[in-house]
Design goal:
The protein is α+β, with helices and mostly antiparallel strands and 219 residues long. The protein has 2 domains: 44 residues; 153 residues, Glucose Permease (Domain IIA), CATH 2.70.70. Helices cover 16% and strands 37% of the residues. The strands form 3 sheets. Strands 9-5-6-7-11-3-2-13 form an 8-stranded antiparallel β-sheet. A 3-stranded antiparallel β-sheet has the order 1-14-12, with no helix packed on it. Strands 4-10-8 form a 3-stranded antiparallel β-sheet, with no helix packed on it. The chain starts with 7 loop residues before the first helix and ends with a strand. The model has no long low-confidence stretch (mean pLDDT 89).
């Protein structure tokens, strides 16, 4: 199991603690205790797993891949959104504690800026959480126009990881951060009339694999 560098402090601490507990159990010959300790280690550390992904090649122009693993929790159309400075469609993905939590870029793009906002820590499954919870918004440029990605924390998730800098260049499906434990990731696209959404609410998606939507090229 490959583990992400974004959570090395947590998974390393978990490993040290449980190895220490396992050593004590072995010293006192509590052999049966090693089984639940092993199960607990796998359960906790697997949250930080970073499975290899084969990113699709030769995709149609404007195809957006999912930025997160999880379930489509909402597809919303807005009259205005700050990331695209106009009308937008938002595809929202809910990540449970069982999902892979690595976030990936939906397309080839460059980072314009990030905007972090403090907020509440409501359950990520609630509609209100997307509006009031702590969040980190990334403003990307793709083919000459802006698109957005938004990392939203949840009731348990209180650590948004996004070690990027303005001007960074990304390839489609490239990891750029994670949100530790249950959370939400949003893809924000401009020109809703020119967007074809390929998913529906309730669909399961995988980061860097699932085709979320196609943004028609500017004419």
């Amino acid at each position: 199991m490959t583990l992400t560098r974004y959570g090395w402090k947590q998974w390393l601490a978990i490993t040290f603690i449980l190895v220490f507990v396992a050593a004590i159990s072995a010293y006192f010959q509590w052999w049966l205790a090693l089984i639940p300790i092993g199960i607990l280690w796998v359960s906790l550390v697997s949250f930080f797993r970073n499975p290899w992904r084969s990113i699709p090649k030769d995709l149609p122009e404007g195809m957006m891949l999912s930025p997160a693993d999880g379930v489509i929790s909402a597809i919303e159309f807005m009259d205005s959104h700050e990331t695209v400075e106009g009308r937008a469609v938002i595809i929202r993905i809910f990540l449970s504690v069982l999902n892979v939590h690595i976030n990936r870029t939906p397309c080839n793009c460059s980072l314009i800026k990030t905007l972090y906002r403090k907020g509440k820590f409501l359950d990520a499954r609630s509609e209100e959480s997307a509006k009031v919870n702590e969040s980190n918004t990334l403003f990307f440029q793709h083919n000459g126009e802006s698109i957005g990605l938004r990392q939203v924390s949840g009731k348990i998730a209180r650590n948004i990881v996004c070690p990027v800098q303005d001007g960074d260049e990304f390839t489609q499906g490239q990891p750029f951060g994670m949100i530790k434990f249950g959370s939400t990731t949003e893809l924000i696209l401009p020109r809703p009339d020119d967007v074809t959404v390929h998913v529906e609410k309730g669909d399961s998606v995988r980061a860097g694999i699932t085709r979320l939507a196609t943004l028609a090229p500017l004419v």
